[in-house]
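Retro notes, structure queue

What went well: the backlog is down to a handful. What didn't: a couple of records were mislabeled last round, so from now on we paste the full input next to the output in the thread. Example, using AraC family transcriptional regulator from Anaerocolumna xylanovorans DSM 12503:
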Amino acid sequence: MQSDWTTRMNSVIDYVEEHLSQDIEENDISRIIACPFSLFHNSFTQITGISFAEYIRRRRLTLAAYDLQNTDEKVIDIALKYGYQSADSFRVAFKRLHGLSPSDVRTSSVTLTFYCKLHFELNIKGVEKMNYTILEKEPFKVIGVRRTTPYGGGTWAVVKSDGSNERINELCGRFFGLGLCFGFGPDGSNDYMCGIEWNGADAAGFDTYEYPKATWLRFEAKGSIAEQTLGNVWYRINNEFLPQSKYQKSGLPTIEKYLFWDEGTDSCFVEILIPVTVKKDRL
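Corresponding output:
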């Protein structure tokens, strides 16, 4: 039997399929999934590896290719049908995905890209346990460098190249070790902060973020970098633990605490810290 979470996620996907040629409303998604759209969007991106908007774009362009091959509809009509306001914008998006222009589809035997409709299932193997710790943390402050970059973790590349990591070490006696994820944009961009926990005064040139008192879940990702240990733990948190537990993300930024990360030895040890609240139906 599917969990309530997977049922709701699949209901969102069904809603998307029914509205690929119409407007897809964030309020409708929030109603179906029973949580704020921002929380749904962040979870969707972490689980699937693409943003919700990118998934919609891929599905629309997949169906547009079918329409071009199997109907006599005009290109501009198909473009408008799937949310593009001009033939030019449709052509650019179509070529980026399929590698050829819409008109080429009707003039020769071509190879096209197909993206299936998603389907979520809960698959938990009982032997693969997940250890977690519940923490009650008092308010605390983080200082560091916050940027929105085109991909997850891009802020680390910034602080390692512009001297920020060295400057924070001079100020505090340690390098950045915390990664705060504030969320993903519709285009997949990541609002992310590299920081350290700090109880001193604000420092010029650095951003600050103050957490309120909160309940946290702590997980460990320990193993091979090449085998995507960190990503795999995140996947299991979002797909297995949270759907079945009494907890849900609170909306505060999650934290990755890098205790050890050495690509030379292909090993890492990262604590994942997630601010949570108890689900209303579990109170």
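Agreed that this is the format going forward. Reviewer comment attached to the example: Strands lie at 133-137, 140-149, 178-184, 190-197, 207-211, 214-223, 247-249, 254-262, 267-278.
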